[in-house]
Write a structure and sequence with these properties.
This protein has one domain (about 1-230). It is about 65% helix and about 10% strand. The protein has helices spanning about 20-25, 35-60, 65-90, 105-140, 150-175, 185, 190, 195-210, 215-230, and strands spanning about 1-10, 10-15, 95-100, 175-180. Helix 8 packs across helix 9.
């Protein structure tokens, strides 16, 4: 498996991989409970729907949906983009991380370990929180007729954080990592200093050189989010 350590502004990096979201989850395990099996199937269905919508947005197609369900699916799509790598790591034993050639392999592996250390703590905390909310909303909304959208959303979050927690633990403790310098990734940092249209065009060129179809949309989204966070700080 190959992942990419991508500059996303300043001295910040983000790990990136491309694969269908449903492939990242893997085969559904056999479970003794029909209720659990139903939640896993619902999780997969929501995941596929949200992923398709996200890719349309990142390719520049208009986002003309509205309402609560649309807002929930957008949040789910963002979670998929963030957690896809961790879900896939549950099935890996050896991974190569390609990093900008203006940093050393040791520094790249240090970034990887630091990110997974944060992920283990963060996803376990949210697994507990969302698991409690999932149970509570499931009980409350059984009394209300119609689709239980809120409970579905927190079910997705709880399952997603569980898979991410397991993947982060394995990435930190069991996966063998190899670092490999990648010159095109060094071009991402100067591209982030360009104006919006030039930046996106340049990021597309870099993505094409690496055979990564969605790299430009990913970097643009993360870069924009981090700038908003800094502005609001």
């Amino acid at each position: 498996m190959i992942v990419y350590l991508v500059p996303v502004g300043g001295s910040r990096y983000q790990l990136y991989v491309e694969m269908p979201a449903e492939e990242a989850i893997g085969e559904a395990p056999a479970v003794p409970s029909r209720w659990i099996a139903k939640q896993i199937q619902r999780f997969r269905s929501m995941l596929i729907e949200a992923e398709r919508a996200r890719l349309r947005r990142e390719s520049g197609e208009p986002d003309d949906g509205s309402g609560l369900w649309h807002a929930i699916m957008r949040r789910i799509a963002e979670a998929i983009a963030e957690q896809r790598l961790l879900w896939h790591l549950r099935h890996q034993t050896a991974v190569t991380v390609r990093h900008p050639d203006d940093m050393s392999g040791e520094d790249a592996l240090r970034e990887v370990r630091a990110e997974f250390t944060r992920d283990v703590s963060r996803h376990f905390r949210w697994l507990i929180i969302d698991g409690v909310i999932m149970i509570a909303t499931g009980i409350v909304f059984t009394l209300i007729p119609g689709p239980n959208i809120i409970a579905w959303y927190f079910t997705f979050r709880a399952i997603g954080h569980f898979l991410s927690w397991r993947g982060a633990r394995k990435g930190l403790r069991e996966v063998t990592w190899t670092a490999e310098a990648c010159q095109p990734l060094s071009s991402v940092r100067p591209a982030l200093r360009l104006h919006a249209l030039e930046r996106r065009d340049r990021l597309r060129e870099i993505g094409e050189s690496l055979d990564l179809k969605h790299l430009a949309g990913f970097v643009e989204r993360v870069f924009t989010e981090k700038r908003k966070q800094q502005a609001g700080a």
